[in-house]
Amino acid sequence: MMAEENEVFPHLNKRTPMAIFFMDFRNVLKMDEIGLEIARIALPAALALTADPIASLVDTAFIGQIGAVEIAAVGVSIALFNQVSRIAIFPLVSVTTSFVAEEDTIGRVSPQQEIDSLENGSVMNNESKELIPQNESSEGPYKSKSLLNSFGISKIENERRHIPSASSALVIGAILGFIQAIFLISGAKPLLNFMGVSSDSPMLKPAQQYLTLRSLGAPAVLLSLAMQGIFRGFKDTKTPLYATVAGDVTNIILDPIFIFVFRLGVSGAAISHVLSQYLISVILLWRLMEKVDLLPPSLKHLQFERFLKNGFLLLVRVIAVTFCVTLSASLAARQGSTSMAAFQVCLQVWLTTSLLADGLAVAGQALLASAFAKRDFEKATATASRVLQLGLLLGLFLAVVLGLGLRFGARLFTSDINVLHMISIAIPFVAGTQPINALAFVFDGINFGASDFAYSAYSMILVAIVSIICLLFLSSAYKFIGIWTALTIYMCLRASAGFWRIGTGTGPWNFLRSL
């Protein structure tokens, strides 16, 4: 069997795990089966992921016409809202994509494949065994049906079917959304103080107005993100794209109306953003109800324990990530409104362009979760290799584009000479880190697709500890430049952690040693 497989994948013969990074690099842009699969998932996902930051960039551009204080205030509020949202929803979205992809794969394969994938050591095997009832009724010809029923998966050909992870994700997302809204609205002022906006700062009033109003959209934001995780598990990234574009176009249209026509200023920007998020949620829910029966057969099929176990690991990870980014914004705010305004523009550009690589990460996660569920290690290896190579090429392309264009494009966000000068200082960091950022994001998707949640959490804690020390020291010694130097170190460490895991063939990648 291995000899036959190696004829199909000759590049896998007797290579060290490190060889995965260079495997078939000449064919990186080839539109073969793997290339087409990645493109079908990654391109819509990348566009959807960048749509919301682009809408935030539009908000920033409109608000920048009001004044430097307002753009700095909104920058702090957006940073705070986004980081709290990441803590609340990122673990849920990540595990949902993997779980839905696994359950969807199990529901579609043949009975014998179901038995093999669930019992013969797949990545999800350890978790699955805890959930599969061990009794005599699971023997004989009914064994496959029992395995499916233990997950609450309906193996039917009709469009609507029971996917337990989908129902669980919606319940958890709704609860987290309301908790986030209450937390941000009730604690807006102290949270902004923590971010470096003091009580006597001119930024406090507009920042508090924007944060309070935008927090009303938290339930919609978290629900829509949870549903995007479900669609990604189905390898459907077009539906989230259409919904996100519809919502963000609405936001862009309403922005000038509320900000300038109704003279609501930063409050108008927040209101338009909230309305757009509820529109996105309604569209996604409507489409999801056509695909999945959201009411589970019983509460036991929701499997909250499985979500909480893996979600907690990613929660630890995202807290570490969030603290690094939030601390950098806080340190910039403490240097004054000019530094914060420049940091906000650069950070939005930095994250927006880097998120293009997240489209590749989504594709890698969905394809790898299915491959591991079927124990198709050759497909897993080829997929990981291709998305990493594409990530590197994308990062190099973005570095060139930003290096050449950001100096001129910065004038779209502000006309303040001092802010423009600070932006020009950060351009080498924003552009130069793009290849590193792209690889770091792609490694995240690969780790999640392999259900390597524990390593993702523990390695990020170590990365965060080193990065926080660098941020505090370098920002104190070198101010604005120090913050961006520390962020560069932070992204280098994130990418290095991914290289080490696969390159050494450890954890779920130990099969690379035997190929």
Write the layout of secondary structure elements.
Elements: H1 2-8, H2 33-64, H3 68-108, H4 111-119, H5 125-131, H6 143-151, H7 164-186, H8 188-194, H9 204-215, H10 218-233, H11 238-261, H12 266-291, H13 304-333, H14 337-354, H15 356-373, H16 377-409, H17 417-432, H18 434-449, H19 453-503
Helix pairs in contact: 2-3, 2-11, 2-14, 2-15, 3-7, 3-9, 3-10, 3-13, 3-14, 3-15, 4-6, 7-9, 7-10, 8-9, 9-12, 10-12, 11-12, 13-19, 14-17, 15-16, 15-18, 16-17, 16-18, 17-19, 18-19
Characterization of this structure:
The chain is mostly helical. The protein is 77% helix and 0% strand. It has helices at 2-8, 33-64, 68-108, 111-119, 125-131, 143-151, 164-186, 188-194, 204-215, 218-233, 238-261, 266-291, 304-333, 337-354, 356-373, 377-409, 417-432, 434-449, 453-503. It is globular.
